Each structure stands twice: as C-alpha cells, then as structure tokens.
C-alpha cells in the first residue's frame, strides 16, 4: 500500500475505507491479494448492477477484442455502437413508450449532467437551472453547481452560476412544511419574486449520495405537471438509480412520468466507462460536433452493455430484483428493531436501501466493522448518517445472506462501541 | 446508417465526415462493413498513438479479463492500478526527473482539465485562470471556459467565469506584435491594470484543435519563468500532444520546462477511457474524496496503459517517431510546393503535422476526397483551415506511404475543385 | 411638453402619469404651470416627508448659500457636515441607544445599498446576500441583484450574482406556509442543502414598492435572532420607510431590533440628494477612500437635514404622524367597505398605506382619475395592484381631507369604469 | 475634528489629507474655521469647474427657492428641468451637431456609468463591455467592474462580470507595443480567440484618476472607426474631463469623434448632485421607468447648471481656459526643469495637468506641503505617482499665480525631504 500513499494524490478516498489490494472479483464477491473475500454491498456505487465479471459479458468483450473490433472510434459508426443502439431502443425504450434520441457523451456521469444542462439552457434560451437540496450530480464545474454538499465546493472555484436550489420532497421534515412544488409555482408566477423560470429542473427520483431520500410518486407527478404547465424541461438524473436499481429499468417508471431529458451512466456499460443522454427528439437541437469528447465511442462498453440489456428481454430480472429487495428490507428492519436507539430509519425501494442513524460516527463504524468481517459497504448523506446498500442486482442468494449476516454482526459490534448514555 | 440518423442525437459529428460503419481495425488500418480499408491519419484524435489493437496490449487485456481481474474499482486499490503507477513512475517520471503525484480522475480529458483548474484555484486561493487564444481544453463548463472557439459557447450556458484569454505565441502574426508574456507581466505588476494575478496558466505547447500552432521553446521558457516569478501555477494540457506525439513522452520536454500540473489522457489508456493529472507533491492539497467520479478505476485501461509504456523502456520508439515524422514533413512540403496557391503553410513536429490553406473549404474537401480514396484525415482550426496528421505513432512504413500517397491524390483532386482565379 | 418628448429619454416615467409642468410647491400642495393645484399623496416617493419647501428649512439653506458656505466638499470636513453629524447623533441615534457610525455615500439610495452589501461581504468574507421576494433596493447592478421585479432585469446585464431570494413574511399567503426564517435556518444548518450562510440579509421592514407588505414584529425579531445565532449581518433598508414614515424615526423601532447596518436616504436630506449608511462601529472596517464618490458632501442637504431633525427634539411630531395615519386608515377602510369587489385589502402603518385591488388595471385608473381631480398618487406592486399613500408627514389637516376626498371620488369613478361582471 | 473621528466611518478620505474644517469658499479660494485660506487646485475632483459660489449661480438658486420652486420632482416635469434641457440642447448639443437624447439618472457619476452599461447591453443584447487599464468609472458593482484599481476590489464583492480590460493608448510604454485597437480587432475577427464582440467600449479620453493619461487623437479616431465597423457602441465617460476641462465642452471634441453614449456629471450641476446620460436617439430603447431613482429631479442643480451653461454662449470661456492652461503648463515645465530627478513627466491639456514623479511618496509629500502652505492639491494614479491640477476653470489670475507659487514651494520642500541618492 506504500506505493499508493507515495505516488497517488491525497484525493484518493475509498482506498482509505477499504485498505487492501483487490485482485479478483466474481458477481458480488471480491478477493484481495491475501486471498480474503468480501461481499460487495457497494457495487461500484451503482456501476456494477450486473455484478463483477459476468461470464456472458466477459465472453462478448473478449470475442470483440479478439476479432480486432474497433475499440475507440470517437463518434464514428461501429458495429458495436449499432448493436447497442438497436438493443437499447428495442428492449428498453420502445416497450416503455419512450421516444428518445440517444447522445453518447464523454463516459462519465458528470459529463452526461453537463450535457443535459447545456442542452436545456440552449434549447430554452434561459440560464437558470433548478436543483434540489442534497442533490449529487458530479464534480465538473457545471455539474458541481447543481451538487449540494459544500464539502465539494470552494469559494475560488467560482460561484455556482445560474442555479437555484429548491427543497427536495419532504426536505423540511416538519408538519407544516410547504410543498416545494407549490413554492416554485408561486415564485415563477410572481414577476416580482426574484425567481426566474428556469430552463430545466434536474432531479434524482431517489437521492443516493444525499442519503437515500425517496421522492414520492405524488411529488414526482406534480413536478412533471408544473414543468409542463410552465414550459420547463424536466431532467431526471438516473445515473445511480437507473439500470434496474429500483426494480424497473428507469427509476422514474414507478411514478409514470416521462422526463424530457434523462442522464444514464454507471451500469449502462456494466462498469466500463460509458454515459448517455436521452432526450425527446424535439429537444435534440444540437449542431453537429457542438458537444464532443474523445471517449464517446468506448466500444467495449457498448458490447458489454448490449449483452447486459438482454436481461431485460422479459420480466424475470425485474422480479428477482424485487424479491431480493424484499429480503433486504425484512432483514434490515429486523436489525433496526434490535437497535432502536442507534437506528432511526430504514428506507429504500427495490435494491437500494439505507439505514440511517442519529448517532454521530455510527455508520462509519459499521463500514469499518464490515470491512474487517468481509463486507464492502459505504456511507451516504452529508454527515455520513446513512449506511448504504447498493449490491449488484445479480447477487446470489448465498452472497446476499452472507452479506446481511456480516452487516448485522457489524452493526452489533458498532453499537457496542457507541453505547447510548441516557 | 439509418439507425444512427433516426436514433442518435444530431450532435454526432465524425460519422458525418466518415459515413460508414467500421468493424475492424489493426494498427493504422481500418475496415468498414463492406470490407473497404482506410489508412487512419486521425488516430482517435490522439488516443491511438499505439495503434489499433496492438497484439501485446490485446493479450494483456484478455488475460486480465479471463482471470476475473476487477474491472471497475472506483478508487479502491487493485493490482492493475498498482502496476500502472509503478510503470509510469519508473519508466516515465523518474528518468525525466519529474517528481509528480498522480491523480486518477474521471476518464475524460475535460475532467482532467477541470481537476487541474479546481486544484490550482484551491491551492492559490485565487479565482482567475489564464488560457490562450485558440485553446481547446474540453466541453464541461469549467473546461469550456478556457476553450476559445465560440462555436462551443452559448450565452445561456453562463459566462466563462474567471478566465482571462491571452494571445498564444505569435498569435498576432505581425512584425510589431508584443510578446504576450511581456504583456501579462506588465498587467500583473500594475495594480491598476484591471488584471489580477491568476491562480494558474493553462497551455498546450502545441495547439492541436486550434490549428497546429506551435509555441516556441523560448516562449515556453519565458512563460515558465514568469510563472515562477509571480507565483503562478503552470499547467500544461498534454492531452493531445503528450504520450509521445512530439517524439518525447511529454510535449514540454523539448522546452526543458517542468510544469506544476500536467493533464494527460487519450493515449495514456491506449484508447480505453482514462485520464490522469500529474502534480508536484506540494500542490497535492486535496482532501480525501474531494474530487471523485465513478470510472476513475478503469482497470482495462490501466492494464493496457502499463503494457504500452513498455515501449518507453529505451529510446527506440522515440527515434522511430522522429524518423517517421521526418518523412511526413518531407512529403508534405513537396506536396505544398506543387500547390503554392492552395497551401499556405506546412508545420509540425515529431508526428503532429498540419497543412494550412488560405482557400476556404479546401481542407474540408481534402478530407472528403481522402475518405473516398481510403484515408481518414480531419481538419483543425477555427475555420477548418488546416488538415491534420495524427496517425498512430506505430504506423508501419507501408501504411504511412500509402496514406501519404492518398493524401497527395486527395489534395490534387481538391485543388482541381478549388481553382484559383487570379 | 413637446420638449420633454423630443429630448428626454423614453425612460421618463412619472411625467407620463402626471403629464403637466409643475412650477411651485408648498407642503403637500403642488401647482402646475396653468395654476391648477394638486394634493401630493406621493411625497417624492418618500423623500418629502417634511413637505415641499418648509419655511424653516428654506431659510437655513438660503442663509448657508448667502454666506458662501462650501456647497460641495467631497468628504472634506465642513461646518455643515459637522452640525448634521452632531444633530443626528444627539437627537436620533443616542436617545434610541443606537451606537452607529455614519458613512456618507453617493447621494442615492442605490449607492447606500451597494455600500452596505459591499461592506457586509468584505467584513464577513462571504459572497452571498439574502434578499426577499418583492424587494426593491435600487438599479445599479449590485442593488439590482437584490431587487425582485423582473421588469428591471435583462439577461444581458449579467446574472444577479451571489444573491439568494427568500420569501418575505407571509409571502405564500397560504395556511400551511412555512415560516421563511425556519426555512433559512434549516438550509444553513444543513451542509448539503446547497445554501451557504450569507454575509448579510437585507430587508425592508415594510416593502413599499413591493406593494406595502408589512413584516410582522414577530418575524422581524425572529430574523434578528437567526442573524445573531448564525453570525449573519442584518441590514435594514430604511430608505423609504425610515425618516418617520411609520411614526418612529426608524421603521424597525416597532420591532425592537437593532440592525447591524441601516441604509438611509430620501427624506434624510428633505428631498435634496443625500444618502448615508449607519453601521455598528465594529463593522466599520473600511480602508480610507475605499468607497468614494463626488457628491458625498452635499452641504445644502446637510443643512436642510439638520434643520429637519429638530422636529424630533420631542415626541410631538411622532404623535401627529400617528394621528394623521389613524385618519387615513379610517377613511380608507370606509371607502373599501363601499367597494368590496374592487378593493381586496387596506393595509398600512403610521403614514404608509396601500389599497389593494384584485381588479386588473383598477389602481392605475384611480391614479389617472386622481390626477384629473387634483391628486398625485401612484401605484405599487409588481402588477400595480396597490394604490399607495405616501403624503408628506407634515401635510395639513385641510390638505389631507381634500386629498382623501379626491381619492374617494377617484375610486368611485374608477369603479364605474371597471364594472364587476358576475 | 474629534467628532468626525468618533462618528464618521473610517472610509473618510480627503478629510485625512486636508485635516481642517472648511466654512467658506469663493471661486478658487477656501477658508477654514481658523480663517486660514487655501487655493483650491482640486476643484471638487472636477465638480467645481465654475468655481465655488459663483454669484450669478447663487442668485439663481436662491430665487428659485424663494419662489417655492419644486426642489425634488422625481422625473415629473418642472420648469427648472424644462429650462435646463432647452439650454443644454441649444447652447451645447445643437451647435456641436450632437443629436442626443438626455436621460436624467441618479445624481452620481457611477449611476450614469451603470445606466450607460445597462443600456448598451440591453440594446446590443450582448453581455461584454470593454474598459481600459487604469480606468476609473465608479464604485457601485456594475461601474466597479470597469474600474481598474484593485484597491477598490474585494474577492467577495463578486467577480467583475462580463468586462474585458484592454490596454489604454500607449499603455505598455515600449517601442514594440502593439496598438490596442489592432489587438481588439484581431481578437474580434477571430472566432476562436476567446474574445466576444462587446456591446460597448467605455473610455475616458483622458484618464484623470488613472494618472492623467491622454489618449491621442489618432487612437480615439481609430477606436471610433473600429466600433463602427464591428457594430460596437462607443461610450465616452466624460464625467471628469467634460464640462470644459479640456477647453472644449466635451473632452472628445478635440478628436472629432461622436460617441454613441456620453456620461456627464460633476460640474454639469456646478457641484450640486446631478448626472445625465446622452445617447443617440436610436439607442434610446428604454421602457418607461426601466431605470429609475429618487433624486433624478434635483431642481437646484438644474437651475444652477442652466445658469452655468450661459458661459458657453460664445467662445470667450473656452479661450480663457486655454490661456490659463498655457500658463499652468509653462510654470509646471519650468518647475520640472528644476527637479529633473524628482519629476519624470509633465502632461496635460486645457486645464487638466499632472506632474509625475518616479520617486515613491514624493507626490503625497507635495500634497502635504501644499496643505500646510495653503494649497489643496491631490495625487492621482495607482501608486499616487502624479500630482493633479484640477482647479476651477474660473480661477482668477491672482489665485492661479498664488497657487502655482505655493505648488513650486511645496515641490521644493518635498524634494528636500526626498533627496536622490545616486
């Protein structure tokens, strides 16, 4: 590990939470260089929904490489890209009635977000974008402007320009809180409020990094309606919550809404770098080459992604996700019941779950205890008040059980180290 | 091709210049779905310096996948990353006396640039960054702010904040032009000039997208000296010109300067998405996790990149680059001599060359003629006034000769279509 | 009037509402060039609280001019300034326990606001300022940024930088609205809300231009407490509501709060250009000359202002204001009762009153009817939904009665022209 | 003086350079409370071109007050305003062929500048404004953005948005400097320079605060031509250099140019607060009331200003200015010849002159020596390297001689305190 300390920037993070060298991974299990195994409840922060090294995907990639397929084509056409587009349209978009065009962007989520925001501003010829409290959309300057956590900001980066922050659903957590969509509507309909109608509103239907905050179906529908009424583009950032995480392919399906723009990344390439932006055709007002980037044509990710989408040919996968999610929920709630003073809330949906603790440092302790016992699990939320479950959707029953057992043991150990003084 | 038109965003660009579907590539040769071959003088815009599908690199990647190496590890430690760091330090940095720490960033050049700018601002606690006329650094908002071409900008994206544009070396192209570094020094030493000392200055030693504009060694040395004198960080964006393009590994080696920060991407992962930022250790003032991203741990790129760096174990590769470059220069100048009214300038260095034409539309025509004849070559410059040579450094003599022959034929054909009326 | 149309900019405004040439004025009566008289319920938008051409003030000014007193001294010391400072401290500030230093700024309200905002930002070394919905603070870029009405804004002026708009007291006008101070506190205590603690909060205790919106005493106290708790500077813009308008000298006295910074202008110079900023001594962190301006030493205004402050030597003036205000309230409410469908609300305090109408164009019609009948009265609010009473505090009983009679007649006439169709 | 120290903000400036209380002033002579007299070479920083308390002006003001003329009318029409407009058009604008409309703005120079910049941006629908090195245009945020001196800026005020600084004529002071207008033209004609064509360019034909820097006639003509060619509005800030300072009424007359917008303040109201913006009629695209302010109708200034303009009924005044200026020049150059090591340059035009010293602190010392001996004279330039002559244009021969004598004595005394060590 000395080499990393000596030569890698101080910015390195997860290596500090999980200080070992990983050498192998299969589905939800990882091996380090000493041979120790870990159950992966972190899942590459949502980029490994299809598990590590899925055999079918491996085979597809290797075949492509062996036959000298073009690996980097910028945005020239390749057979790899052709098949990916075809598969995404036929398997995912058309069956859901989503008439979207696809933009291949630089293969990072933050690039997809920047693209979506630029496009919304260009199309509407308005500068303002609305984002929500606790939102997380990335770290390049345009995306950072819509990301809430002040930890990522610095006065000298330049002000987060042209962004209005609004309270996420249920943000104030109080009886008499005002619905934030009523707030916005009031502002935008009052010419003297000091609030301009934005070009677009960017929302995560479930805030992952922000602490597993789930927007209600009612709120999402109301948000969509306001956007339609006031001619605002609705942008769903589905980078972490899409790709089946909630049981459906897109996280917004549960609300029955149709965003104008959707950002997709992480698992869309099965963990290989890839990001796309989906948009209604009439919004696709780009000039050729107006937003470019070298790695927009990462063919290995196209090949892998197309293969992975086969899981969505029927509804088996979706059902499995929900079944596993139900088990996670049941186990977590049982654990929570054992530690009522340490655990304030268990919340989630499909295969995204969080355990929130009012005890400072408790969730960080769980993560450390877990690592010791062979579990990879990270915290979320501005004060790391949540321990997050983001395991591969393909996790086996055995892996899941083992992981949940370790989680329970870790919580028990953490609770012992954080006694409640009453 | 209908599928792309129907489903891919209008933003698609190179597919319009080279309208066919590519299915195979080997070193500097590409095959389309009809079996037609093309010599690749474009080289993935600088990301394929080691050619398409190098056999040794292919083998390394496949082996890694077959043994279930971790493909996406965020910034957890993996053996793939370990070996890449070790190789980069031992083969490249140490022999050049460059004591740099490495930051793995989101795998796009624009992310590397954003990271460098954020870091410079954070470290110096100043907002301003200087960039140059015709600079190209990427398309996310922070990087876009330092990119000159107005085609990429829109009023509603928000103003390019905190950026001062200065003339690149020899920009004004006139007898009595003032040296831009004297200009800057004068501004910064005058408290009433309205110019603040910036946190950093970002420079391409050769502007590729800007039109193959080559900064002189003298100017680069003078720039470095001013940065030292006035406590400004010198950032070299070596994304397109690094990785051996100029004959040396880094493009700034020819000037004998040592930047404070260097951005590297494109060929560093042999065409697989990867980007890093190199920085002097004392500048590495990040907090853990302060700049993150999902795909910072693209192991396949680490494996491929480490393998590619073996070419730098001795100076053979460097010599080959210079030898091939000399041939390119000789051929291009001979062609230019045949078309004195169509070709205004031939300029370059190592394996980066450009032919500039004063005739509007001429270089675009060359590109089209080339495609027809089996050559992939793109234009550069704000008005596409340059045809650019960016072939793989590994291109074979045969491929090179064939490509140059097609280039000459294409120029001849283009000249016939653009007669000069005197 | 042709001369004005031909040579004065289209921006001219009140000349359109009151299209005649005024040649004489005494207390609350104005004469035009035809000899017609008007009762002035507009009072120079709050700059004529002491009436037009008060005899004692006239005498003081003339004496000063006749003895060749220095009229423009920049910020050199003059006897005129000496006496003004002395009078303001002894008669106003000390008796109220307000330990403020005085800054003489460029003689406009907008300059006082700019100064206050610059000072708050400089002292706290934070960029953000909070302002409220419907706020009006002036038209230079810094002040415009905190002014709500979009009519005054243009995309190309530059974004209203570093300003957060918050709902004014009772803004949402709904049962379940959240207290805006609870909102702010929640935001500022959540590091991931996307809201930074501001340098200062600027507030009008009663929004005049915004539509005579009155902040409750409870809300103002709560605002002050939050500012103290979170180390935010509380700035009261008392430009229109100060100088006795509400019965007390400062409008914030009714709430028992002590702002950190107070902007004062309009009647402080009895209608001659003058503006000052009051600040707690520990906030006075300016360097000499850091905020300057040519007309900071308008001696005629100092002489006039010092004379006017004599009215505050005892509490007679204050009692008169309240007595007159009570009459205004009574008459207005009686009028409102006659027109329940045209008049939605009558609200005010001291000598600031507004009649709000839900009928579009109704208040503009009242203004026009009034002008015809010899009354100067203007509208307020983003949609001109309020007719505003801002008469000189010194208005005679006879003038007041006459004015209110004309107002009633004008409302009657306006109502006839805006029949309600049910 | 204790009262000022105790109660006036630390920002007070000139009171520190001239620490006494002034009680009387006549033409170019001031009296303090001890009876000591001073010759005024500062002239209210250009606002007292017509001298202190001109008898004819005094009489006009007193008459207006005595007949109860309206003193504050916002922008309602008054006879005072009528006569001012008429006089300005007939005596100044028409004879010079200047077809300008007049906008009355808040009575400060900074407000005139803000108005000009807002108007230019609104009319051209572009954000950028060009201003020059060492420019001084005021202290509200919009005007501050075009003011060079960093002393007036603070990181937390917000970035000086949308402003490009360009070198003033002869700025680099070197043989091979590039003409700044050629620079701009090059930038604006290159789509990839990173420089956008601005809405307007604001320029002082002579920079007063910046150190008496005189733009050449040739440069001003060339600037105007570029503005015409590239559809940029030319804004002359004539606040300090207008009103006859250079011999002509407007400072730009000597170059034979016709700006699109002109800002005028200071002496236009003879030292009483007033500011106007002149603009070509087709640029007058304001909506009614779009830029407002309480003190736009300062009638005393209209009355005084109209009276003062009578001096321009024939060319006598202009000739007097030039004659006095010639004497100033001669005396100053003679003094400079006596102190070749202390005085580097004497420069000026009409009645604006500056003596520049390469010796640090020398000019400040002259100012202090002068004050002791009965002279009010201030420094200019970013490092106070210039002593500035801005006496009333109406100064008597006797006052002028006396002042120049004191100046010479003060320079002699200052030189003795700053011996040159060689």
UniProtKB/TrEMBL annotation, chains A, B, C, D:
Class of the enzyme per the UniProt entry, highest EC level: transferase
Keyword Coiled coil assigned: no
Pathway in which this enzyme or protein is active: Amine and polyamine biosynthesis; ectoine biosynthesis; L-ectoine from L-aspartate 4-semialdehyde: step 1/3
SUPFAM superfamilies reported for this sequence: PLP-dependent transferases (SSF53383)
GO MF, any single term: diaminobutyrate-2-oxoglutarate transaminase activity
Coiled coil: none
Keywords carried by this UniProt record: Aminotransferase, Pyridoxal phosphate, Transferase
InterPro entries in the cross-refs: Aminotrans_3, Aminotrans_3_PPA_site, Dat, Ectoine_EctB, PyrdxlP-dep_Trfase, PyrdxlP-dep_Trfase_major, PyrdxlP-dep_Trfase_small
CDD domains to which the protein is assigned, alphabetical: OAT_like
Domain of life: Bacteria
EC code: 2.6.1.76
Cofactor: pyridoxal 5'-phosphate
GO terms for biological process, alphabetical: ectoine biosynthetic process
A Pfam match: Aminotran_3
Family named by the database record: Belongs to the class-III pyridoxal-phosphate-dependent aminotransferase family.
Protein name: Diaminobutyrate--2-oxoglutarate transaminase
Taxonomy of the source species: Bacteria, Pseudomonadati, Pseudomonadota, Gammaproteobacteria, Chromatiales
């Amino acid at each position: 590990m000395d080499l990393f300390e000596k030569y890698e920037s101080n910015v390195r993070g997860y290596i500090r939470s999980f200080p070992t060298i990983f050498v192998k991974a299969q589905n939800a299990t990882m091996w380090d260089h000493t041979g120790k195994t870990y159950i992966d409840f972190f899942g590459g922060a949502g980029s490994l929904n299809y598990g590590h090294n899925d055999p079918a995907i491996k085979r597809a990639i290797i075949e492509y490489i062996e036959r000298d397929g073009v690996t980097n084509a910028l945005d020239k056409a390749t057979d790899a890209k052709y098949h990916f587009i075809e598969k995404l349209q036929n398997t995912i978009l058309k069956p859901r009635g989503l008439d979207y065009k696809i933009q291949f962007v630089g293969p990072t989520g933050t690039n997809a977000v920047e693209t979506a925001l630029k496009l919304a501003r260009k199309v509407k010829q308005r500068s303002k974008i609305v984002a929500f409290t606790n939102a997380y959309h990335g770290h390049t300057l345009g995306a950072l402007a819509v990301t809430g956590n002040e930890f990522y900001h610095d006065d000298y980066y330049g002000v987060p320009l042209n962004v209005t922050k609004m309270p996420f659903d249920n943000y104030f957590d109080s009886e008499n809180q005002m619905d934030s969509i009523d707030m916005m509507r009031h502002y935008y309909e009052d010419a003297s409020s000091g609030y301009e109608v934005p070009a677009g509103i960017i929302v995560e239907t479930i805030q992952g990094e922000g602490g597993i905050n789930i927007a209600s179906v009612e709120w999402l529908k109301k948000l969509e309606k306001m956007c339609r009424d006031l001619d605002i583009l609705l942008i769903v950032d589905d980078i972490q919550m899409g790709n089946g995480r909630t049981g459906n392919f897109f996280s917004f399906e549960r609300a029955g809404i149709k965003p104008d723009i959707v950002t997709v990344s992480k698992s869309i390439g099965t963990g290989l770098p890839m990001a796309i932006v989906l948009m209604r055709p009439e919004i696709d007002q780009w000039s050729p080459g107006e937003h470019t980037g070298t790695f927009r044509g990462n063919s290995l990710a196209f090949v892998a992604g197309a293969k992975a989408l086969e899981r969505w040919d029927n509804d088996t996968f979706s059902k499995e996700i929900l079944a596993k999610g139900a088990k996670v929920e049941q186990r977590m709630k049982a654990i929570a019941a054992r530690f009522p003073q340490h655990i304030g809330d268990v919340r989630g949906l499909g295969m995204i779950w969080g355990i929130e603790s009012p005890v400072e440092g408790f969730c960080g302790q769980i993560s450390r205890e877990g690592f010791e016992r062979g579990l990879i699990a990270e915290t979320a939320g501005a004060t790391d008040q949540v321990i997050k479950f983001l395991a591969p959707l393909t996790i086996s029953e055995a892996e899941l059980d083992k992981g949940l057992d370790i989680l329970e043991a870790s919580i028990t150990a953490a609770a012992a180290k954080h006694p409640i003084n009453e």
